[in-house]
Amino acid sequence: MVPNKEVLQNIEAGKEDELSTCLRNMSKAAVEYAMTNESQLLETTRGILFDAYNAVPSYLQNIRTYKNEEAKLKSCCLVVQGK
């Protein structure tokens, strides 16, 4: 969910105060989704790495809002590509 290398460097350096409010809110919402949505709490996957891995694209596809369908498609494609 990190939009660029500079933001990643700030996160790795512990400079959370330099992150945008938008990124902080989106990250908080994604974690909340991962910890509370019933689709993320299935007995077969709860508490394993797959659950955490699956939460990010699920959040981006099902919860986050986009300005249009093209923006949504681009965002989801970047996650699949690992960017």
Tell me about this structure:
- 61% of the residues lie in helices and 0% in strands.
- It is mostly helical.
- It has one domain.
- Helix 2 packs across helix 3 and helix 3 (49-62) runs antiparallel to helix 4 (69-81).
- It starts with a helix and ends with a helix.
- The mean pLDDT is 78.
Shape: globular
Kindly state the percentage of residues in helix.
Answer: 55-70%
Unreliable parts: none
> Can you write the helix and strand succession as a string?
HHHH
Beta-strand residue percentage = under 5%
- Number of individual domains: 1
How far the N terminus sits from the C terminus, by CA atoms, comes to: 8 Å
What's the tally of helices?
A: 4
Question: Which radius of gyration do the C-alpha atoms yield?
Answer: 14 Å
Structural class: mainly alpha
How would you sum up the major sheet? none
- The overall average pLDDT, rounded, is 78
Strands, total number: 0
Give the gist of this structure.
This protein has 83 residues and is mainly alpha-helical. It has four helices and no strands. The chain has one domain (5-81).
